[in-house]
Design the sequence.
């Protein structure tokens, strides 16, 4: 009976919390939308596993197939432009963009008496009068208003091409696993994405259909490890396969350079890969811990990875950059999914041995805690097993016995050992302040390390 007590207690707490999360008084005077507007929750753009993985797949076109199509740079199709400007009832399309609001899961947009929802920092909407008053509010997961007067930073009338939202130009080093992101195009239900290397077509993807408001990023399953200068572009496709936009503009936000070797690298899962607040992808720097470390650290993180997954890609992804130091932040996807701590440690030991064989200094970071209450609330991943803290403790104890390690547990945990609620929206991923804690901890370690090798 005692062994089932944690399960019974979890069920009781879940039922008691249900009333709290559905308490209308909790949202009183905080709603932006009228009651008639339905707001759905987005898929978790940070956890590319289980039921979510099929939503981010795409048909991979061969380079030969890609070259048989139009790949002219900065081509403007006048026919597309005219077609898109003549919408029903003389409506025009306005593209609005704004800065990401920390901890916002979605945005409510109001124009001409109509309400819209966006899960990224921009939207395309139909309007009759381009001078109409437009209001944008940032909402949390429960539709409470975080900011009721979000400033629109740019307005484009009848845009003919998608707008990139990647922030490669703000990153010290480009990530190895790219996440392409953009403002959803009003006319498109899927997209073609092309990645170029040194001016030549390198990859070509055709994404699957998503709902309009949820169609704003694509996770590349293949790493980018070859040296060169890269950029990417995108165009919208209609359900019938017809191209309905021009190619996006080539700019610094979608461009990056890969160079070797890289002195400091970081291996990990989505905590390292980046992103936050459920809907913000890793291509946005505010939720990347590398942004808060003054030293350039190459991001080798891959969303959804377990320690076993990281071990399998070690030779391909880590050795490609010949790092001097490798930070390893791993284990959260293990202990939350019934992988025993003993198995996780065995994988980490193999990663350590591989590092030693290749002259790499491994620095292990204790895996971040989780918050089961919030995980159960948002329901994007499975509830963790009842003994997750025991398995996590096993991993942390091994890490703290290593020659080089960083312990971030105290700053991220509450008095129950859960991920602090003020640091996370979904209970799994630390958001901006949590990522800042990790970034600063890595920075402190590097300061000490560089001082030690000088003396």
Sequence:
């Amino acid at each position: 009976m005692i062994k089932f007590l944690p399960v019974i207690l979890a069920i009781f707490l879940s039922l008691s919390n249900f009333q709290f999360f559905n308490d209308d008084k909790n949202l009183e005077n905080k709603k932006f939308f009228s009651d008639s507007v339905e707001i759905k929750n987005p898929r978790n753009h940070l956890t590319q596993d289980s039921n979510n993985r099929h939503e981010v797949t795409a048909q991979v076109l061969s380079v030969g197939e890609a070259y048989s199509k139009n790949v002219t740079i900065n081509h403007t199709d006048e026919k597309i432009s005219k077609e898109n400007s003549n919408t029903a009832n003389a409506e025009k399309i306005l593209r609005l963009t704004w800065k990401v609001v920390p901890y916002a899961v979605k945005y409510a947009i109001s124009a001409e008496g109509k309400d819209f929802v966006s899960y990224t920092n921009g939207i395309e909407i139909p309007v009759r009068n381009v001078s109409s008053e437009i209001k944008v509010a940032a909402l949390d997961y429960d539709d409470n208003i975080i900011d009721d007067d979000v400033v629109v930073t740019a307005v484009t009338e009848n845009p003919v091409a998608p707008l990139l939202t990647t922030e490669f130009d703000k990153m010290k080093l480009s990530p190895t696993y790219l996440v392409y992101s953009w403002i959803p195009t009003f006319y498109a239900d899927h997209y073609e994405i092309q990645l170029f290397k040194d001016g030549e077509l390198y990859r070509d993807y055709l994404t699957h259909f998503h709902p309009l408001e949820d169609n704003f990023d694509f996770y590349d399953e293949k790493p980018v490890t070859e040296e060169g200068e890269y950029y990417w572009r995108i165009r919208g496709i209609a359900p019938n396969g017809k191209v309905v936009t021009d190619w996006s503009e080539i700019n610094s936000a979608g461009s990056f350079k890969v160079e070797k070797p890289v002195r400091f690298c970081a291996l990990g899962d989505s905590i390292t890969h980046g992103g936050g607040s459920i809907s913000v992808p890793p291509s946005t720097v505010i939720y990347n811990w590398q942004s808060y470390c003054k030293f350039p650290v190459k991001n080798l993180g891959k969303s959804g990875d377990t320690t076993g997954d990281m071990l399998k890609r070690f030779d391909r992804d880590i050795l490609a950059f010949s790092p001097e130091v490798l930070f390893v932040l791993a284990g959260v996807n293990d202990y939350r999914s019934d992988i025993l701590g003993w198995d996780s440690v065995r994988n980490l030991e193999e990663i350590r041995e591989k590092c030693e064989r290749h002259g790499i200094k491994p620095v292990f970071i204790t895996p971040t805690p989780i918050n089961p209450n919030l995980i159960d609330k948002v329901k994007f991943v499975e509830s963790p097993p009842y003994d997750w803290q025991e398995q996590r403790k096993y991993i942390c104890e091994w890490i703290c016995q290593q020659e080089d390690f960083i312990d971030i547990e105290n700053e991220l945990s509450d008095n129950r050992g859960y991920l602090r609620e003020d640091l996370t929206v979904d209970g799994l991923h630390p958001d901006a302040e949590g990522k800042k804690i990790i970034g600063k901890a890595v920075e402190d370690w590097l300061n000490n390390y560089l001082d030690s090798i000088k003396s």
Observations:
- The first strand starts at residue 58 and ends at 61.
- The two ends are 60 Å apart (CA to CA).
